[in-house]
Design a protein that fits this description.
The complex is a heterodimer of chains A (430) and B (181).
Chain A: H1 19-28, H2 36-42, E1 46-51, E2 63-69, E3 72-79, H3 87-91, H4 96-104, H5 111-126, H6 132-160, H7 164-185, E4 194-195, E5 198-199, H8 206-229, H9 233-239, H10 247-252, H11 258-262, H12 269-272, H13 293-316, H14 335-338, H15 342-353, E6 361-369, E7 372-380, E8 386-392, H16 394-400, H17 402-406, H18 411-421, H19 425-429
Antiparallel strand pairs in A: 1-2, 2-3, 4-5, 6-7, 7-8
Helix pairs in contact in A: 4-5, 5-6, 6-7, 6-13, 6-18, 7-8, 8-13, 13-18
Chain B: H1 4-13, E1 18-24, E2 27-32, H2 37-46, E3 54-62, E4 73-81, E5 86-94, E6 100-102, H3 111-122, E7 125-127, H4 163-166
Parallel strand pairs in B: 2-5, 6-7
Antiparallel strand pairs in B: 1-2, 3-4, 4-5
Classes of the chains: A mainly alpha (430), B alpha/beta (181).
């Protein structure tokens, strides 16, 4: 009986048997040296279990077909696409600025990152740079968004394992961050705040007070969250040693973000390819040791503290000045010019109706979203619409490692592993 | 310059495989033949000077108008080297009649889903893939939406100048001005 082929994975696919199965192995009289998959393949009574797409702990509409032997997962086949909306096709018939609201709706828990990735790709094709104040405000808003996204992950993944209190606390704090979104852009989730060439607008005055309050209160609030969960013996029993992903496998599957760093690979695009002046800030990249569910949890909790460090630095050193580029290929002419200059009026009209024209070429711009490497591969043919825009979604690659992570685990633990990947199905399916 | 490491290495180790090399916007793109794809990507993964161990994505770009002169599809691969902190881009061109490239899922486990997505949305075949079927769209879906000739944008709306295109003959008004135009 051969083990299931790991398909390209450079290391052995399976961990040794868990302790519960040591007893089972003896009972069945299995020869020593066989691993978990061999054992479950020996069993005759396997069953297919359908999990999802309407399941509270699949974080959206993910369907898993689980092949079970007793309670052990022999094979897991994810079925995705329930939320496929064809955004990449939509991009091709909209002007560049019109694409921004579509990007909001892909990874709906971190809309600002999607805005930023797309804007950076277009800006690189245009060869423009946003003023420093715009870059700093982008960083502040993105890191606030990362906090909100991680808080939501913390609440829901804890809820999956029965920790209802954590969920309520996480929601309490996330509200404060969404209030800031509402203040700067008028909406709480699909902000479209970051645009090609800068921001929707400069931030209003209450912004400073609200972000100041976040900086002041959040370290204590994160302590509270950690107090609830981090050393909780139930949480640790459910997560330690579960869903292990080795660094080699994480790389081979293209896993990024906290899933990759949980496996001990210190790769963060904010450090590796600093964009939007991330190189001005001092922060650390937390990594895990074993690559299990608990490590991914620790990495994300630590990342929230690092995000706060970045927000604090950007907020304290926030420069004055414009937030939007003055490059006339993107920026509208100032209002007073329209009264005196015919050319400005025509230009204003053409920019609003036709949109900007972007030089022909291809770029790949990747940023570090809360879920990992969010990339935009943008091909322009010189017109006012993208010729092709491929979105490299972090959740898509991370989720493709799920069958590998849950093979040989118990079915109740599948829920914990899904929670630890932090998938957003809008991001997976696009 | 992102991707220069891979391009230099390929020009040094497998000069016959590099068909074209171009740089723009700070990124280097290498065009290769599909016959060399597996060898090139394995070299990029395993060579100590490259270590492109992480698949980023594979997708395709459809250029239907250039078919007689150049192949219609650009199949675009992006690989990341965490060790050297670099992304490289490989392009394999395939024609409309034979839109197939060898599968890389045995080289990078993560290419499995990306190849299925590319097959689903663009109709590129990946020979050797263990389970090449649609991933995002329903299995009974017709066509490949990200191809440029896939009509997807709503229903045709009848105006006087396009009646013949927009409406079947029996539904066209008989005596409408301009109906025959």
């Amino acid at each position: 009986m051969t083990a299931l082929p790991p398909r390209g994975s450079p290391t052995a696919p399976l961990d040794p048997l868990s302790e519960q199965y040591e007893a089972g192995r003896e009972l069945l009289g299995v020869e020593p040296g066989l691993d978990a998959v061999d054992l479950v393949q020996i069993g005759e009574n396997t069953m297919e279990l359908n999990m999802g797409p309407m399941h509270p702990s699949t974080h959206g509409v993910l369907r898993l077909v689980l092949n079970l032997d007793g309670e052990v997962v022999r094979e897991c086949r994810p079925d995705i696409g329930y939320l496929h909306t064809g955004f990449e096709k939509d991009f091709e018939r909209h002007t560049y600025q019109q694409c921004i609201p579509y990007t909001d709706r892909m990874d709906y828990l971190s809309p600002l990152f999607n805005n930023l990735g797309f804007s950076l790709a277009v800006e690189r094709l245009l060869g423009i740079e946003v003023p420093l104040r715009g870059q700093y405000l982008r960083v502040i808003m993105c890191e606030l968004c990362r906090l909100a996204s991680h808080l939501l992950w913390y609440g829901t993944s804890a809820l999956d394992l029965g920790a209802t209190t954590a969920f309520v606390y996480a929601w309490r704090d996330r509200e404060k961050l969404l209030d800031i979104n509402e203040l700067v852009s008028g909406v709480r989730m699909h902000t479209s705040f970051i645009r090609v060439g800068g921001l929707l607008a400069d931030v209003p005055d209450p912004f400073y007070e609200m972000v100041g309050a976040v900086i002041k209160t959040f370290p204590k609030l994160i302590d509270e969250h950690e107090l609830l969960i981090t050393k909780n013996p139930i949480w640790r029993q459910r997560t330690v040693g579960l869903g292990v992903l080795s660094p080699e496998d994480a790389m081979a599957y293209g896993a990024t973000g906290p899933v990759l760093r949980g496996s001990g690979v210190p790769y963060d695009l904010r450090k590796a390819h600093p964009y939007s002046s991330y190189d001005h800030f001092d922060f650390d990249v937390p990594i895990g040791r074993t690559g299990d569910v608990y490590d991914r949890y620790l990495v994300r909790m630590q990342e929230m503290r690092e995000s706060l460090k970045i927000i604090t630095q950007a907020f304290e050193n926030l420069p004055d000045g414009p937030v939007n580029t003055t490059d006339r290929r993107v920026a509208l002419p100032p209002r007073n010019e329209l009264n005196t200059s015919m050319e400005s009026l025509i230009h204003h009209f053409k920019l609003v109706t036709e949109g900007m024209r972007v030089p022909a070429g291809q770029v790949y711009e990747a940023i570090e979203s809360p879920r990992g490497e969010l990339g935009f591969y943008l091909v322009s043919d010189g017109t006012n619409r993208p010729y092709r825009c491929k979105v490299r979604a972090p959740s898509f690659s991370n989720l493709s490692a799920l069958p590998h992570m849950v093979r040989g685990e118990l079915i109740a633990d599948v829920v914990a592993v899904i929670g630890s990947i932090d998938i957003v199905l809008g991001d997976v399916d696009r | 310059m992102s991707g220069a490491r891979a391009a230099d290495l390929l020009e040094r180790e497998l000069p016959a495989a590099v068909r074209r090399r171009e740089s723009g916007f700070g990124e280097v793109t290498v065009w290769i033949d599909r016959a060399d794809l597996v060898q090139v990507s394995t070299l990029l993964r395993d060579h100590p000077d490259a270590a492109y161990t992480t698949p980023v994505f594979v997708t395709a770009v459809d250029w239907p108008d250039r078919e007689p002169v150049e192949p219609r599809f650009d199949v675009v691969y992006a690989l990341r080297s965490l060790q050297y902190n670099d992304v490289c881009r490989l392009i394999v061109q395939v024609t409309e009649d034979d839109p197939n490239v060898p599968s890389l899922e045995l080289v990078f486990a993560g290419m499995d889903w990306h190849e299925r997505e590319c097959f689903d949305l663009l109709g590129i075949g990946f020979t050797g893939h263990h389970d090449l079927k649609r991933i995002l769209l329903p299995t009974d879906w017709d066509g490949h939406p990200l191809r440029k000739d896939y009509a997807s944008f709503g229903e045709p709306i009848a105006f006087t100048h396009n009646l013949e295109w927009a409406l079947p003959a029996q539904e066209r008004p008989r005596d409408m001005p301009g109906g025959s135009r």
